[in-house]
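Researcher: Please generate the 3D structure of the following complex. Treat every line as part of one assembly.
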Amino acid sequence: MIRFTSPAAFAAALAALPAADEPGREAALERQSRLTKPAGALGRLEDIAVFMAGWQGCERPRADAVQAVVFAGNHGVAAQGVSAYPPEVTVQMVANFEAGGAAINALTRACGAQLSVVALDLDRPTGDITRVPAMSVEECLDALNRGAAALRDGTQLLLVGEMGIGNTTPAAALCAQALGGAARDWIGRGTGLDDAGLARKAAAVEAALALHRAGCTDAFETLRRLGGREIAAMAGAILAARLARVPVLLDGFIACAAIAPLVRANPALTQHCLAAHCSAEAGHARLLSTFGLEPLLTLGLRLGEGTGAALAVPIVRAALAAHDEMATFAEAAVAGGH
Amino acid sequence: MIRFTSPAAFAAALAALPAADEPGREAALERQSRLTKPAGALGRLEDIAVFMAGWQGCERPRADAVQAVVFAGNHGVAAQGVSAYPPEVTVQMVANFEAGGAAINALTRACGAQLSVVALDLDRPTGDITRVPAMSVEECLDALNRGAAALRDGTQLLLVGEMGIGNTTPAAALCAQALGGAARDWIGRGTGLDDAGLARKAAAVEAALALHRAGCTDAFETLRRLGGREIAAMAGAILAARLARVPVLLDGFIACAAIAPLVRANPALTQHCLAAHCSAEAGHARLLSTFGLEPLLTLGLRLGEGTGAALAVPIVRAALAAHDEMATFAEAAVAGGH
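Model: Done. Output below.
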C-alpha cells in the first residue's frame, strides 16, 4: 500500500511520476490500424484504447474492475454562508450513500463500478480557511493517506468523488492559488447559491488567499492551508493511482481542483487522467483547459459525488470492447485495409 | 405491424404524428424535484428521464429492451468515384456484422442492445442519382416497409445504423434538397476521401440536385429520387417507432439525413428522437442544429453502423437508473428538499 510518511515524501513521489508504457501504446496503435474501420473512424475511442494500453502495459487493456470512492468531509468555512445547504447535509448524504439512495449509487450500479464511501472526521470540520489553515500537517497527511489507502489491489480504472457542504469554496481557493486568476474566475453557484451567497463566497476565497498566499510554498502546504479532508484524500488517491499505474477518470470541479496544486508542481500528473465530464459549475471548463484535458462528456451535471466520472465508464468500456473484439481486415476478408 | 401501403399513406402517417404523454412527463418532473440532489443538478440526465417518461407514458420509464438495427444498401452513384472504398465492401461488411466482428457488434454487446442486420438487395444497387431516380415507387415503399418491419414488439429504445459504400453522397443530396444550402455545405470526407474525390462528390450532389429538384415534391419523392434503400429503411423505422411511441437514439450524418425530408414535411418528427452523437463528418453538426437537437456525445466518430447511437445507450440507462432508484429527500431524511 502506498503511504506518504511526510510532506517531503509526498513531494518526492510527486516529483518522480512513472510514465506510460511505450511498447503497450505502440502495440495498441498498430492493432487499431488493422481493425475493420477506416483509420481514425472511431475518434476518441481509439485514443482511449491507446491510453489504457499505455497504463496497463499491454496491447489489449481491460476495464472490468472499476472502483469508485466517494470521500466526504466538513468545512469550517461553511460558517461563512457559502453554501445553499446546511453542513449537517454532509452526514445525511453519507447515510444516503450507505443506504444506496444517492445518484452515485444508481450510476455506479448502472455502470458496474464498485462503490465505497470514506467519511473523514465529519464531526471535526476543518479550520475556517478565512481565518486559519484548514488542517494541521498531521491531519493533511492523514487525509492524503486515507485517500491512497482507498485504492484497491486489482483496480483497473479509478474514479473518485466527493461530498462536503461548502467545498466549492476551498476548491476555488486551491485553483486561484495554484493556477492564478481572481476569486471570481473560479467561483460558481455550487448546489444553487443565490447572489448574496455568491458574494460571500468571493469574499471568503479572497480572504483565504490573502491570509495563506505566502504560506502556500508547495503542493502539500497549499492543500493543507486551503483544502479540506475529502479534497486531500482525492489528491492522495489520484497520486497513489499514478504510482500504481492505474488510470483515473476525473470527475467534476472539486475533484479536479484537488489536484490543481499537484499539477502546478508537476504538470505530468494529468497524464494518467481522463476528464470524464465538464461540469456546469463555473470554473471547471477553465480548469480542464489549464490541465490540457478535453472532457469526454458535457451533460450539464453539477452534483459531484463522482457522478460525471461514473457516466464515462461505459465510454471507456466501449472503447476497449471495440479495440479488443473487432475483426481485422485480414480476419474478416474486407477490402481496404492498409 | 406498421406498413405504408402507398406514398399517400406514408404522407398521411407523417402528417398525423402522436405526441408525448403529458401526464407521464409531469409525473416524472415532479419525481425529479423530490430526489436527493439540488434541483437541476443532474443536468441532461433529468431531461432524458422526462423525455422517456413522456414516450412511455409513465412516471418511471425503462430502457431494458434496446434494439439496434443496421440497414445496408448499395448505391449506383458509387460509380462516380465518391468513396474511398470499393462497393464490394458493403457486402463484406455485412458478413463482418453477421460474424460479430464489426465495431457495432462490439458496441452493442458492450451496452446490451439486441443487434440485427437487414441487407437490402445488395446485388441490385440503386440508380445513379446523377442520372436517374435512386428507386422506383415500389422499391422505395418496399425499403420504407422493411425498415418499419424491423421494429420489434416490446422495444423500449430504438437505434438504427447503416452501411453502404457511397452513401454520404445521397445523404448530402437529401439534406441540400430538404433543408437548403449548397452541395458543399453538406459534403465531407466520409470514410476518408481525398481532395479529388471530394470534388467528384460535390459535382455528383450538384448534378443530382439539378436533375431531381423539380421532382422532389414531398418527403416520399425526395427519398425515392435522392436516397437509397438503407436510407429509406432508416426513415421507415424511425417513423414506425414514432407511431408506436418508441423513442429513438439518432446516430450519425446518414441516419439523420434519412429523416431530413420527413422533418421538412413535419418538424414534430424529431420529438421522439435524441441526438446521440455529433459525428466528425462535415454537415452533421449543421443537420442537428437544423433539427433543434443537442447531441449527447461529441467523440469524433465518423463510422456510421449505429456506433454513435450505441455509445449513448448507457447515458439513457444511467438517466433512468438515477430517476428510478434515487431516494427522495423524505425517504432519506436529508435536509433541503422543497
